[in-house]
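Weekly puzzle thread! Below is a chain. First person to post its structure in token form gets bragging rights.
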Amino acid sequence: DEVVLKVENLTRAGVFEDVSFELKKGEILGVAGLIGAGRTEVMRAVFGADPYDSGSCAVFGKTVHFRTPREAIRAGIGLIPEDRRGQGLLLEKSVRQNTGLASLSENSNHGFVDEKWEARIAKEYIELLHTKTPGDGALVKNLSGGNQQKVVIAKWLAAKSRILIMDEPTRGIDVNAKAEIYHLMKKFVEGGGSIVMVSSEMPEVLGVSNRIMVMSEGRVTGFLDNKDVAEKDIMKYASQNAG
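Winning reply:
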């Protein structure tokens, strides 16, 4: 029952209002809602990628206000964005370089990257996540969508993230790759990590989440324990007039 992330009354004028939720250790909290519900915007604000006007966040019991993603990363949070090609990866760089991206500052010496460390962790996570790539030097742009997503996940595992915010984690990848991503998520929370998963796919939300938060028009409209919950229950809250 340990609360690892607590968000209270988070507000950004015209985007989202009075958003409050808790994430517990070892939990996958699904975030459902229709397009334009404000789900992505809230998660970017929590991560320090976008500003917010009022409200508060606490990570592992400590009140924080991240003004940059770097501060969130140092606190143990990773963000797997909806647009992985545009925001999650450097497509013209290698698997090795992408894997080490979020941990560079801790593994550099006077501005020089520790290349032995970089190669070691890249190979470690290629094996751990079963990433299909010709090698750690392959350019990320040449990998399939599912394997690109594995590189994004590897980046945050290498950074020792304890909380992952996953926005549409399986969008645009094939069925087999989806199953592998779900397996990685399960292993992550079994190891003591916690996940907030934003998804527009109802079967994904129902199949993966422990609890479900539903948003509509920038507000939280309901919380559901994922026991005997049907798509219609989620849709009732997702289509609710938040005003």
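Puzzle host: Confirmed. Bonus trivia for everyone else. The longest strand covers residues 3-12.
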